[in-house]
Amino acid sequence: MMTLRDLINKLLGRETSSANTARERLQLVLAHDRVDMSSLTTDLLDKMRKEILDVVAKYVEIDFDEVAVSLETEDRMTALVANLPIKRTISGEIKFKKTDKTDKANKDIKK
Amino acid sequence: MGKNTRTILICSGKGGVGKTTLTANLGIALANSGATTAVLDADFGLRNLDLLLGLENRIIYTAQDVLDKNCRLDQALVRHKKEPNLALLPAGDPRMLDWMKPEDMKKISELLSENFDFVLVDCPAGVEDGFKNALAACKEAIVVTNPELSAVRDADRVIGILNTSDIEPIQLVINRVRPNMMASQEMLSIEDVQGILSLPLLGIVLEDEQVIISTNRGEPLTLSDGRSPAKKCYLNVSQRLTNKDVPIIDPKKEGKSLKDKFMRLMQTKVF
Description:
The structure holds two protein chains of two kinds. By secondary structure, chain A is of the alpha+beta class. Chain A is built from three helices and five strands, in the order αααβββββ. Chain A has a three-stranded antiparallel β-sheet with strand order 2-3-5, with helices on one face. Chain A starts with a helix and ends with a strand. Chain B has one domain: P-loop containing nucleotide triphosphate hydrolases (Rossmann fold). Helices cover 39% and strands 16% of the residues of chain B.
């Protein structure tokens, strides 16, 4: 979205308004605060990551180099996002190519 | 009376954003509309609600005395002479800092609920024990914030804690709004603050020097006859709280000078 003021500022090569700067700074600091506030410390997240992988690894072979488990915050919700690329099923049959992004599990944690 | 009493926590996290001023003005406005209203100063370490209401010389007992059975509830309640539907109850004495527990506050709020339609609890700043005590006394909450970084950040922390409790609904009041600064985009907008905190907006209060004058006098604006921008806002919040179908005051429409109109033109969306 751009207002008439933004347009004029842009044409004159001026800086963006301080409200804009405030909004951006606030969004960053809150994203940080909201995750920090949860009881999910890095240690706990690591532990949870291992346990999730153990469960999934019982059924499919995972590409461990490409695994990513992280917390993502949007609005007031924090989501646990796991990206677990699958090499093959345990039976040996190749189902996916290595580059496929598969098994994206979203679990919402209400905070 | 009693069962449907609304016990409302008025909190902010950060100090100095206007919790106590909102409590005092909202208390008077609700009482004036006919609802029996108690305002409980849960900030007993640094209590100030008595000053804003002009009742500082009339406090004899506190909620602490009621719980200790040193006096009856009606002896501890300080009735406002100009607005008899309003009563103040200080939670405790500033000299005693450690005695209060969440159960104590809950008991006080239950006692008040038997006698009042509204109980407004003025919460201390911070997110520690004082806040948690006050929280235990309430069923719903109003989060007060200012359109500035530190206030919004602290409000966010408070909302995070409220969200893990049974408090419902949690509504937002944005205080000290300066329409001109918002129009020139030198202040976070109402939409910014509300969007970031994702709470339903109960209302806004415009920046107004009359607030300082009324505090000096110990007479909340909602008690005075005069007209002032903040008074209009407090009445609006009070009406919206009692579910009257009135729209929120729009800061964009508050400035009436030529400069304000120009500022509004500059806000026009071009694409």
